[in-house]
Specification:
- With 413 residues, the chain is α/β, with parallel strands linked by helices.
- It has 2 domains: 243 residues, Thiolase/Chalcone synthase (Peroxisomal Thiolase, Chain A, domain 1); 152 residues, Peroxisomal Thiolase, Chain A, domain 1.
- Helix content is 33%, strand content 18%.
- The strands form 3 sheets. Strands 5-4-6-7-1-8-14-13-9-10 form a 10-stranded mixed sheet, with helices on both faces. It has a two-stranded antiparallel ribbon with strand order 2-3.
- The longest helix has 17 residues.
- It is globular.
Length: 413
């Protein structure tokens, strides 16, 4: 018999705040966390805006030695994990460590460290490259360091599927719990790719918005959209088998009931224009959840603010939900956070859980000019309260044609 999987803890480090409460308050109120990039001099860059993490004190969660020994993507993950573990009240001294897992992904890994150490190599020679270069850079170290910190000895993985990484990690954790391999799992994603090489690379790929106004640069589904805005941060959730959570009287925030994962098999960076790949993932998530399209109260769209994504995702939602798509509220919260790449699916999972918990659907801000290719209800500019919201779907779509869709259910104790 399949086991039920609930969410008992959450942690967040984002451009809208470095706690779940601060993050969610910003999302609810339509606050834009995108601003001018301050990490480096953007004088020679076409792109000058990003969703940087601000007012973040890593020493609340680890000592200076650990901060220096980790790339920022791992630091963000460790901080969000510390929040989530404290929130959950999961006491590792009372657990079978082999039944507690860690599945945390990063789309790019230690890009800042890569840039710094290659620069050092060129300027000072190979002997001056940090001995910690490799462990600081490789993408599995967020998961590895979280496992080490808490003594979690179960499944420990890092799933790298570009911008779908966070969602795939959560979905894989859900399946491990559902099918009996784990009792609980620390899961999510982390990213820290706002640096010279990261911004330059995405800019020359023509993926980023060149809008010089940070408060208007990210406008998903708007006809004038011109690319995505990079964001940094981490989202971590504690997933737990229902009976395990009830036995220790844990607070339950929501339930994961479906997961769909497919490949477009179409193009390195572009989604299938007809949305068929993403639609198949949405349908699979709803099928596992045992629901019909009319039961979906909210969709948190991938909604990157690129022409190809937003039109293709709109097509996917219509293909998956049929006529019900026109009555289903959809929003892209990337309009407020920017695109956190491998962490996007994780912070957006938190948004879905909070939306169902409070009966409040967050907006797509900066929506001014409707696009005939994007003709759904995108909750423009102002969020809305709803009387009944039982199921929410979160879409994540990544370069390489990766599609990951999670389905959440409101917790009714």
């Amino acid at each position: 018999m399949a086991r039920r999987c609930v969410i008992t803890g959450m942690g967040a480090v984002t451009p809208l705040g470095s706690t779940v409460d601060a993050f969610w308050n910003g999302i609810k109120n339509g606050v834009c966390g995108i601003d001018f990039i301050e990490k480096f001099d953007t004088t020679d860059f076409k792109v000058k805006v990003g969703g940087e993490v601000k007012d973040f004190d890593a020493e609340k969660y680890m000592d200076r030695k650990d901060i220096k020994r980790n790339d920022m993507f791992s630091v963000y993950a460790l901080a969000a994990a510390a929040q989530a573990m404290e929130d959950s009240g999961l006491d590792m001294t009372m657990e079978d460590a082999s039944r507690i897992g860690v599945i945390v992904g990063s789309g790019i890994g230690g890009l800042i460290t890569m840039q710094e150490q290659v620069t050092r190599l060129r300027q000072k020679g190979p002997s001056r490259v940090s001995p910690l270069f490799i462990p600081m850079t490789i993408g599995n170290m967020a998961a590895g360091n979280i496992s080490i910190k808490y003594g979690a000895k179960g499944v420990c993985e890092n799933i790298v599927t570009a911008c779908t990484s966070g969602a795939n990690c959560i979905g894989t954790a859900f399946r491990n719990i559902k099918h009996g391999y784990l009792d609980a799992c620390i899961t999510g994603g982390a990213e820290a790719a706002i640096c010279e090489i990261g911004v330059a690379g995405f800019t020359t790929l023509t993926a980023l918005s060149t809008n010089p106004n940070p408060k208007d640069a990210c406008k998903p589904f708007d006809k004038e959209r011109d690319g995505f805005v990079m964001g940094d941060g981490s989202g971590i959730l504690i997933l737990e088998e229902l009976e395990h959570a009830l036995a220790r009287k844990a607070t339950i925030y929501g339930e994961i009931v479906g997961y769909g994962v497919t490949a477009d098999a179409y193009h390195m960076t572009a989604p299938t224009p007809d949305g068929s790949g993403a639609a198949a993932a949405i349908k699979a998530a709803m099928e596992e959840a045992g629901i019909v399209p009319e039961q979906v109260a909210y969709i948190n769209a991938h909604g990157t603010s690129t022409h190809a994504n937003d039109s293709g995702e709109t097509a996917a939602i219509k293909l998956a939900l049929g006529d019900a798509a026109y009555n289903t509220p959809v929003s892209s919260t990337k309009s407020m956070t920017g695109h956190l790449l491998g962490a996007a699916g994780a912070i957006e999972a938190i948004i879905c859980v909070k939306a169902l918990e409070e009966g409040y659907l967050p907006p797509t801000i900066n929506y001014k000019n409707p696009d005939e290719e994007c003709d759904l209800d995108y909750i423009p500019n102002t969020g809305r309260s709803v009387e009944r919201a039982e199921y929410a779907v979160s879409n994540s779509l990544g370069f390489g044609g990766h599609n990951g869709v999670l389905c959440f259910k409101k917790w009714n104790s």
